[in-house]
Amino acid sequence: MSNLNIDWKPEFGIIFTWFAMDKFGRIAVMVNNCFGDLPKALLSINNVELLLDQLTDYMWEESEIFKNYPNNKSGCTILDLYSGLRFDYLSTRKDIEQLIQERSNYQQKTVECNLPSRKGLFVYHGIEGSIEGEDYPIGYEGVTKMGDYFRYLIPTIYASIEDFPEELRHGIATSDTVDFTTDRLLDNDKINEYFPRMYKN
Predict the structure, then answer these.
(1) Measuring CA to CA, which residue among 188, 14, 12 is closest to residue 3?
(2) Could you name the domain of life of the organism this protein comes from (predicted)?
(3) What is d(CA 198, CA 76) in angstroms, rounded to the nearest whole number?
């Protein structure tokens, strides 16, 4: 039985990964880190959890159904904002950039850090924590709250809807207003305004 439906609310527990397209057709991986909301348009899909699993398996090149993967973008991964909670063991941004660089080689097996360089995907993370304020996106100067999505990793060569099988494209939430190259933080309370509909082939 799927946990995801139109009445689902984010809470501590399972992390969901979903996919979004901005107004220019660029694609992002959205990791909700328990507290980020998912668009109602996505939650309205029957068996949406299975669809998200299929998209995620395809992204990691672990799909048993869809095996025709796009060519390696052979780009770079750029660090933007990062979690103060997740990286509290590293003291400086330079240390974190070095870590990302080491893990983002597009010739390596697909991991989160090379999703931009290898796949051309932006990566956004939901602000997490056990209490409000425990986590904060370092590098962002505005006010944030748990569940807001911050831009973590940026590609230099962009993926598009064409990089996904036609059978899975309807699982990508679509925006007419968001621009992943400029929007560094997405207000969790406005997720349905940002992504009001799903992609239609």
Answers:
(1) 14
(2) Bacteria
(3) 28
Give, in order, the Cα–Cα distances in Å from 173 to each of 133, 169, 193: 28, 9, 11
Helix (H) and strand (E) counts for the chain? Answer: 4, 10
CA 188 to chain centre: 13
Task: Decide: 115 and 75 in contact? Cβ < 8 Å.
Answer: no
CA dihedral of 185, 187, 188, 194, whole degrees rounded to 10: -90
- Rounded to an integer, the average pLDDT of 88-101 is 86
The model's confidence at residue 1, banded by pLDDT at 50, 70 and 90, is very low
Q: Which residues fall within 8 angstroms of residue 8, CB to CB, at 6 or more apart?
A: 38, 43
The domain locations on the chain are 17-198
Query: 122-126 and 17-21 as β-strands: parallel, antiparallel, unpaired?
Result: unpaired
Per-residue pLDDT of 106-156, as tens digits, reads 999 999 999 999 999 999 999 998 778 788 999 999 999 999 999 999 999
Residue 163: CB atoms within 10 A of its CB come to 18
Say if residues 104 and 76 touch (Cβ distance below 8 Å).
yes
Q: If 0-12 CB within 10 Å is exposed, 13-18 middle and 19+ buried, where does residue 3 land?
A: exposed
Residue carrying the six token digits 């939650």:
43
* pLDDT above 70: residue 21: yes
The three-state secondary structure class of 126 is strand
Q: What residue type is 5 in one-letter code?
A: N
